[in-house]
Amino acid sequence: MKTRAAVAFAAGKPLEIIEVDLEGPRAGEVLVELKATGVCHTDAFTLSGDDPEGAFPAILGHEGAGVVVEVGPGVKSLKPGDTVIPLYTPECRECEYCLHPKTNLCQSIRSTQGQGLMPDGTSRFSLDGKPILHYMGCSTFSNYTVLPEIALAKIRSDAPLDKVCYIGCGVTTGVGAVIFDAKVEPGSRVVVFGLGGIGLNVIQAARLVGARQIIGVDINPAKVELARKFGMTDFINPKEVDNVVEAIVDLTHGGADYTFECIGNVNTMRQALEACHKGWGESIIIGVAGAGQEISTRPFQLVTGRVWRGSAFGGARGRTDVPTIVDWYMEGRLNIDDLITHTMPLEKINDAFDLMHEGKSIRSVVLY
Ligand code: APR
Ligand code: ZN
Questions:
Q1: Ligand 1 centroid – CA 263 distance (Å)
Q2: Is residue 177 part of a domain?
Q3: Which residues line ligand 1 (CB under 6 A)?
Q4: Range(s) of the domain holding residue 110
Q5: Structural domains in the chain (count)
Q6: Are residue 139 and residue 164 in the same domain, yes or no?
Q7: What are 145-160's pLDDT values in tens digits?
Q8: CA separation (Å) from 229 to 100, 149, 226, 335?
Q9: The Enoyl reductase (ER) domain covers which part of the protein (predicted)?
Q10: Are residues 207 and 292 in the same domain?
Q11: Does 236 lie in the same domain as 198?
Q12: How confident is the model at residue 176 (pLDDT cuts 50, 70, 90)?
């Protein structure tokens, strides 16, 4: 079949909206019609050419929501008409990782996914007979796409897809880091570095679990209003204090129970660790630092009980946990609507990248 898609032909070039060929689903695969997709920093990172795994031409996008059109042989858990969210972190429920209780990093299709291919080592997308690569196993910048069954979360059919697409990446990354990875307890003092799309989701999850204090740290004071609406209780602008770590230790009466780095800057990662309370404070890295960058601190910080850890896709097991997060949104426990600041048709998708680079959007969503 033919499908409309925004194709990345080369690093640093705008996406081109064209018609490409899409082959139907093979064994264990599912054809999905996307209804909406968010545009995320990771798409921009790959498009910039800085992503060591990035290759072109490719159809980017990994934050979508849609409806199943057709299933390939052997697909049991999905049928045409089902509402789904694509998962860049799949959940096969069989591999060594899925069977281990401490990780969500299913590895069953990791190598082919990293190469931009389906699990059988080929691509379903092509143009004039030449293959176009998939991306993060999702390629949601195409109106229709093919995914492995294990990379689709089936969600309730009454969820608005123009909103819940954001659960495919940003919402789950922030909310899950608090609830599934850090397991923040009620009464905790929490610090969030970076009040963008990820940080605001960390804030609303910290409020949801009953944190007593939620301190936001950002160099842009324009972020304060929305952050307060989401649950931030205190704000620190690093440009207005001598020492961010000392300011946090003061405000928290000794250090934070949990800090979350939602910027992707190795200097703020160090601050986030050192702002943790001696003996028990935990710092969770969510932001993605540039390729090749390294973090540092004095080992004494860890010897004296602070914990440094990271979180990918919020520790969520996609097929199991994403439908639950959709429920939380539908029940009014999570606010997604205020985070989607811009929408546009596929033809205008390059505007979404401009808005992101200019810091004007929290999230842009493309509507098919
Ligand atoms: N100190 C404090 N705040 C900072 C700093 C800094 N040195 N540098 C940037 N910020 C703030 C920005 O002002 C902005 O509000 O961090 C926020 C980042 O927000 P977004 O650009 O919206 O990014 P977001 O989508 O939240 O993603 C954050 O997570 O997924 C990764 O790759 C992504 O690394 C990025 C991070
Ligand atoms: Zn697995």
A1: 3
A2: no
A3: 41-42, 193-199, 217-220, 223, 238, 262-265, 268, 286-288
A4: 2-171+315-367
A5: 2
A6: yes
A7: 999 999 999 999 999 9
A8: 37, 38, 5, 10
A9: 12-366
A10: yes
A11: yes
A12: very high
